[in-house]
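Message: I would love a firmer grasp of how sequence relates to backbone shape in proteins. Thank you; the sequence and its tokens follow:
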Amino acid sequence: MDIKNKILSQSNQFKHYKEKSEKLSKENKKLKDKIEKLSSNEKYEKGISIIIPTYKGESYIQGLLDSLANQTLSKELFELIFVINGELDSTTDILKDFILKNPEMNIIFTYTTTPGVSNARNIGIEISQREYIGFVDDDDYISEHYLESLYNHSAANRVVMTNFIDVDEDTGEKSESYVIPFSEKRSGIIDNAPITFRGLSSVTVAKIIPTYAIKTTKFNTELKSGVDISYHARLYPKFDFEFFFIPKEEDAVYYRIKRTGSISRQELSYEFNILGRLGVIEDINRSIKENKPNKKYLRYLKRQANIQVSRFMKEYLKQHPEDREKIMKDIEKRDLVYFPYDKLE
């Protein structure tokens, strides 16, 4: 081998080892960051913080309070954070009475004049001091084993999800939810849960998530709908969670009261079907740009954006074809790296 080729060969070897060294260094940094994130949960008290935003809940919150008082999980292992928001009613008096009757429970309630579930959740997140955070809506309720099962299956890198049942507000009839069919047989660790359990993984309730993770992300207070999708689209790609689904036999159930005015019953409007969906798609795009998600989460984010278009925007356009040009202008004025134009046709 002549001198020139020998130098070239050694140069290529050096380059190879340098690249390998840099790659290992990056992998070590990722591992170190992950360990730091996981260990940061140690600074919180053991147990679950349950955040309950409430607005004018006087006529229905008692059902939730009864279910919280009947939890089988030790009262020492959970705290209840009620965030009353907006115009006041007698909910404050109901909560004071609940505290007096349940002195052994860890109950906090606070008030903000600013209405809105997103702002209330953000306040609750700031207050939370337990290892895990879960959310419950003030007009829903939970089974008595709900918190115990969630906590028994918790882990520092895990999202624990549980069963979900719809309850008709008028008749009390219980039924499977589109979010996750109750007949679903899966349990344990779920591979690729954000895709296979897309509905359940994207609602805020019926799960607990490590507090160190939740505190990195705020709910978008500008959105009037699609808030849960926006939140999880910005949260999940930051962490390599595993997802665990509680076996049905444990009877850990979140009961959601189906009320008039829910998204599933929302009337067509430009505000909801177009501007609201574009707001969610903007947050999804923000996550793509900021988090640079891996293939799994990029697929999840794109699918969430696709649903906003195919289920809501397309339906509006079908009824109002005269608004096509206006819609296209509203899309184009936003800085989107991904928009499924094909789903709009």
Remarks:
- Residues 103 and 314 are 52 Å apart (CA to CA).
